[in-house]
Amino acid sequence: MVKRIINFVIAGFIAVIVLTVHGAGIPQLINYQGILLDTEGDPITGNRSIEFLLYDVETEGVAVWSETQDVTIADGLFNVLLGSVTPIPYQVFDSTEVYLALKVASDEEMAPRKQLVSVGYAFHANRADNLGGSSASDYLQTVNLVPPADGNINLVEGNNIIIIPDDAANTITIGIDLMLPEIISSIEGVSNDGGNVDLVEGSNVTITPNDAANTITISAAGGTGGDDLGNHTATQNIVLNGNWISNDGGSEGISVSNTGFVGIFGSPLSPYELSVSGDINSTGTVYGDYLFARNGFIKTGTPSSSIAFGDIVATTNLRADNEVIAAGNVRSTAGYIKAGNPVITHNAGDIVASDDVLADDDVQAADDVQAGGMVTAGGDVLSYGRIRTGIPLAAGASGDIASTDDVFADDLIQGNGDGDTFGYLGGASYGVFGRHESSSNYGYLGSSSYGVYSSGNCHVSGTLSKTAGSFRIDHPLDPANKYLQHSFVESPDMMNIYNGNVILDAAGEAVVELPEWFGVLNQDFRYQLTAIGAPGPNLYIAEKITNNLFKISGGEAGMEVSWFVTGIRHDPYADANRIQVEVEKKDKEVGKYQHPEVYGLPVEMRTDYDMMNAKGDLD
Fold first, then answer.
1. Which residues, at least 6 apart from 110, have a Cβ–Cβ distance to it below 8 Å?
2. Is the pTM of this model over 0.70?
């Protein structure tokens, strides 16, 4: 195993750090000779893979150059040309100290490193480094030329200056051949003025001399043709094909994806052709396939009502070929909001859609709200005209809510019908579908004589709470002129009532059979027996209800007995929703009355006064 070099010799050292001058090549090579011995001190013969490394420090550090050669060794001696595999950059010798190191095969780097030093005449090259003690600015400020007899000016190359003419482009390139990019890339005009060579500005090139700094700045003036994106002065940023073009490097402004989608103040939101995370303000018509208001609002004209983030508001017209979706309010005042291509006519103030009208907050219209599908709102649905969904069977009058599909709101639906018309005319699945979590608000508040009126059946899937209850039918004796009304039977319990008549057998007994679902539905039974036609002082319940049967005893044979049984519901819903007999009033209800007039108090003390007053039903 090779561990060290016993001796080495630098037989020749030629370091030329520039490229060709006039085609005369100076090799970027270093001739290096050395002796390689094994661990016993015997010379090595054969081929070895040797890595040569140059460092600018004596120990540690990172190599500034390296290459690996397959070296032939005879009796320990070898000779290589460093740089024959990887050229040695001239910058390696910018450092005042350069050290050579070797690594044989997979062995560790040999130590110590050997410093490379100059040969005698190489000291003369020091004058080339410092330009004879002068700076570069002392040279080639002006060129004084004497025109030859033929009137031409000849530029002559020097030792490290190359001149490349380009007749087609009418330019001359002057470069310094020191393996550096050309210092002067082109000169667009050359003229003779007093014997000097003048640099002349072109149509899109400016030349700025600085005598104090002894420099000349040549830069592009921009021009008037081509792409102007490089000269944009927008304070926000632009993205084209996913790349931001900006003057501050941020990621806001206008973004255009490579599929053509546009995002304003944020990245595009697929699959929407235009997505805006701020506000859209238009004094005319806004038209598009999709219109979304999320973090900002879409505003046309100057709405008289206040606006908030997420609102879509129009005082002129707002149209969408497809959906209008708002995280806040959808409002139409003087103009209309139109989605799709509704077959129904529309006027100023309408909200019209061939499919759904959807808002996370309010839907408010100065005239009609008309939808081919559903009208869905997270807040109020307010119309000073009519609200129509689907194709209502009845035309209705101004202020009506007419539906063949669903009208849904988490808060308030208002209809302003007057006279013989009603605030809501329903159909299809639900006449009225109201929902709200707060006990102080209502899913639906109607007008005229009834808060809610249903001309058909009405089903409540939850608990019905009422101030009083009754049934009303046409009076059986005078159905054309009178109603007959009865009050509901009230109980603090969720009570069911069952009754009937039974004839006692020869033993004065009877077994009453109840429906098979009776025991599943009821618990906590109560009994009452009444003899019919004669006293029955000894009547009693001989056996309580078991397996939906109970037994009566103690009567006379053939006696008729009327029985009355009550039970308390214990089905799953009843068990989970027991009636609270006494409940504390909450929030806005405290200090208010459902019917303050019966206590001699003013109408302002009504629990629902705020809603009723806003709707205009209270004087």
1. 3, 4, 5, 101, 102, 103, 104
2. no
